[in-house]
Structures are given as structure tokens and as C-alpha cells.
Amino acid sequence: xxxxxDIKSGNELSIIGFGCMRFPRNLTQIxxxxxxxxxxxxxxxxxxxxxxxxxYGGSEDVLGQIIERNKLRDDIFLATKLPLGKxxxxxxxxxxxxxxxxxxxxxxxxxxxxxxxxxxxxxxxxCELGIEKWIAEKKMSGQIRNIGFSFHGIHDEFIKLVDIYxxxxxxxxxxxxxTNYQAGTAGLKKAAEKGLSVIVMEPLxxxxxxxxxxxxxxxxxxxxxxxxxxxxxxxxxxxxxxxxTVVLSGMNEIHQLVENCETAENxxxxxxxxTEEDAYKSVIKxxxxxxxxxxxxxxxxxxxPQNVNIPACFAAYNVSYTIGMLSGIQQYMxxxxxxxxxxxxAASNCKECGKCEKKCPQHIYIIKSMKDVVNRMExxxxxAMMKIFIKLRG
Length: 394
Hints:
This protein has 17 helices and 12 strands. By secondary structure, it is of the alpha/beta class. The strands form 3 sheets. The chain has an 8-stranded parallel beta barrel, surrounded by 5 helices. Strands 1-2 form a two-stranded antiparallel sheet. The chain starts with a strand and ends with a helix. The mean pLDDT is 88.
């Protein structure tokens, strides 16, 4: 296993982290026996970073049971997240945090994140509730060792958030087709320059970069190296960048764990040969050529007077065609705030003012494209599904 140093804490973190949102399940319940075998084997192979969250349906509790039963707490770094949608008063911070400690059967969290901190407005609202004071108290007591945030928003907001507080680390969605989406490559480099460790989520875009690539793209990878799977290609692209500290993978099968750990054994920055770099360029072009809306995610159209996250809407819409409808809907939900009743940056909020079209360097007919997005990404059952999702999330 390769490790990269968290500069601020000095911790040596395994470059592959265990994403605990997709534990194996028996219908709706987490299969604790299969999950336990995976976690114990992951630790044996050198994985020491485990990422969960309050809202990951049973994940914290199952992870806590497994860690306690196998006496793994001193061998790993635990990461979990504060559910911002549940924070309405100062006392909520403590109530939620204590519940997480109980679930995880621990008295401290190594890496604690503000979950889905998408813009400075949301952060300022938390500051009004006293979040900075609360974080300082928890860090002073040792209950929180490192503080960070996970991000789903537009690039400009990420840059502001990196500068707005003395963070220890951050977590971003990043992969070889999302270089201009959300934080993007520029955000990754900005965070690293500030001394933040960067944890990468969705390296395989929910598995679609492993199993859902266009046939022509798979053929390009095979032509460059027939021994590497698409999943390995995706991981190697990330680990080639020195700014990436940990890549999270939601491993729910033993073969996934074995392949990821074997790949991590020899993954170092700047390891890619020119032929490999050319293969990525070819694959990216194949994927981009299938895009319905030629948006590059430059953010020149932003901000929208109605707070519509225009680049995110287009990115999710394109993904729904290139990767699959389910991935597109999932991306649309997270990046437009559909899962948080306090935020809503969805395409249906467009008032057709046209300010965005005047600033678009790609000369996209944004108003018409927004209607296409609404028709595809917000069908008649969408709002009903969102209400159920929010209710189940609690």
C-alpha cells in the first residue's frame, strides 16, 4: 500500500480509502457479515481511511460495530460528516455529533466534515449559529482531530470556501471526465496550495467509469494496455496527481478491494507514460462527443439571478446520456440542492432572463437547453420522489 502525508497532521493516509456509503446489502439492510469481511481484509491490506456520514442509512452504526468487535480503532482514521440540513440551532451540532460518536463507538473523530457545504452563504449561516466556536471547542478537547468539508457546487464557490476558514482538508468529486465540474482540477490545485489534504469521492462516478463506458472508449483503453480494467485506468489517473491525497472507493465486493489495493501498491505521482496520457485524451473525446449540450463548465454564465446552477444542470444532463439516466439523476440531485429543502438551484427555477446567454463563450442557447434539462431531469414524478427522499433522510 502506498501512503501520502496529510501535511497539517502528519498522518500517513492510505491512497485508497474505504467509502462506506455503498456497503453490501440484503435488500434494504446492510449485510454486516459481508461488510465485516471486507473491512477486516481492507485493514489487513493497509487501508486506513474510512469515510461515512450521518445520512448513510445505517453505515455509521455498522462500521462502529465492526471496528469495536475487531479492535480496529487504533489502526484506522475515521471520517464522518455533520448533516447540515439538520442544523438549525447551536445545540443541534452537539446532539448530532454525540449521536455519531455513539454509533461509531468512539470518543473522537479523526476527520470531520461539513457535509455538502456548497457555498459561502450556507457557511455564513452556520457561522451565525456558532459553528466556528463549536469546532474550536471540539478540536481543543480532541474530539475532532481534523476539520474539513465535502463539496457539491460551482467552482467559484469552492475557491471562496477554501479561503473562508482555516480548514485541514476537503473532499471533492473528481475524475477524468469531471475536470471542469464542481471544484475541478483548478480547485484541487488551489486546495493543495493552501496546504489542505484532498480526499476524492466518486472516482468511478458511481461505478459508471468502471462498467458504463461507451464501447469505443473501452476499446481505446484496451488498445493502450489490455491488462488494465477501466476502473484501474480511472484510479491511476487520479493517483498520477500529487495533489490527490486519498481516493475513496465504495467497495462492496472482495474482487474490487483486491484490484484497488493491488493498483495502489505501485501508484505514485507522475507515473503515467505518454501512451497512457494519450489514451485518456481519446476516451475523454469519445465521451465528450456524445454530450447533448456542449458546456465546458467554465462558469462564465454564473451567477444566475435565480440561483440556478447552470453548469451543474448541464453536466448532469449530459451524464444521463453518456453514462446513464440513474447517474445523471443522482448527479442532478446533489449538485442542484434537490436533496436539501433550504437550497434549490434546479433548472426549473429559470425565469428566461437571458443574462447567462450573453456571457456564454460557447454560445449555447441556455434558455432552450434549460427546458430540455427540466423535461429530462425533472419528470412529473421528480418532486414526489424528492419529498420521499428528504423524509427518509430524516
